[in-house]
Write a structure and sequence with these properties.
273 residues; alpha/beta; 8-stranded mixed β-sheet; 8 helices; 22% strand; globular; disordered N terminus
Length: 273
């Protein structure tokens, strides 16, 4: 979070005062200078337009975190999440799953874009692999530290590629479907964090129970967090309005949004320490 002008001024005054009696020059801490870039690549013969964000004040390489959007596609919300990750010191790469930055503006159009991925698991892997390869090729990438997060549809994608053996350190699913891809013990490498809305009708308790049973059966490393009263899409500030507009059971929950983001930060700090 950026420091306000008032607080920044007070910090400067206090720093100068503390150094008045010695010869040391006060240290200056740079605010994150977030660089944003559209990044083109290809998959399945389709032109992809991803979105990269990173702190340009940092010269060292940093962990890579891919961001897979909701079924609406790579929109401003996905970019916002990438920029917030960049402020935390990561190289964030928002994935263009559909190609040509296609977006669904209604449930019907978004559903037509997303539905094929729920049945064609090989396509999920190809599209994700192409984005991962491109993200790791960027100059800022520490290719030894790679994770992915996803929202709704994107949560299903990152959980799915983890189950297919993607070489990731960690994945985080925010209000995503849980069992789209079958689980095989010998393939799962990533540690998994699931952030789930306890009142989500689109990811019902039976799906949750099956997920936990499968993960427990193979001794998988995972953390499951459920937020009381939170519905589907609880991290997206636009969800309430979209739910009302299209009669969808989705709603923003500020407390669950904050709690789940903090869970992710703690999770990544442990993974990348």
């Amino acid at each position: 979070m950026k420091i306000t002008g008032f607080i920044a001024a007070m910090v400067t005054i206090l720093s100068l005062a503390s150094c008045h009696d010695n010869d040391h020059k006060p240290s200056e801490k740079k605010e994150p200078g977030i660089k944003e870039e559209d990044v083109t690549y290809s998959a399945d013969g389709v032109n992809m337009i991803g979105f990269a964000a990173y702190d340009s004040n940092k010269s060292d390489k940093r962990p890579v975190v891919l961001v897979v959007p909701e079924w609406w596609g790579l929109n401003d919300y996905a970019k916002m999440r990438a920029k917030e990750l960049a402020k935390l010191g990561y190289l964030a790469f928002a994935v263009d799953v559909y190609g040509n930055r296609a977006q669904g503006n209604t449930p019907d159009s978004a559903g037509k874009l997303a539905t094929p991925f729920y049945t064609d698991h090989a396509m999920i892997k190809r599209r994700f692999d192409a984005a991962l390869e491109k993200a790791k090729s960027l100059a800022q990438a520490d290719t030894s530290k790679v994770a992915a997060i996803g929202y709704c549809f994107g949560g299903a994608i990152v959980n799915g590629v983890a189950r297919m053996g993607e070489d990731l350190d960690a994945v985080v699913s925010f209000h995503g479907n849980l069992n789209v891809v079958p689980l095989k013990k010998e393939l799962l490498k990533a540690q998994v964090l699931i952030c789930h809305g306890a009142a989500d009708p689109l990811v019902p308790q039976a799906e949750v129970d099956l997920f936990k049973k499968q993960m427990d059966s193979i001794g998988a490393k995972y953390t499951f967090k459920a937020y009381e009263g939170a519905m589907h899409a609880f991290t997206n500030p636009n969800a309430t309005a979209m739910g009302q507009k299209f009669n969808l059971p989705i709603k923003y929950d500020a407390a669950a949004d904050t709690a789940s983001w903090n869970e992710m930060k703690t999770f990544f700090a442990q993974i990348f320490k």
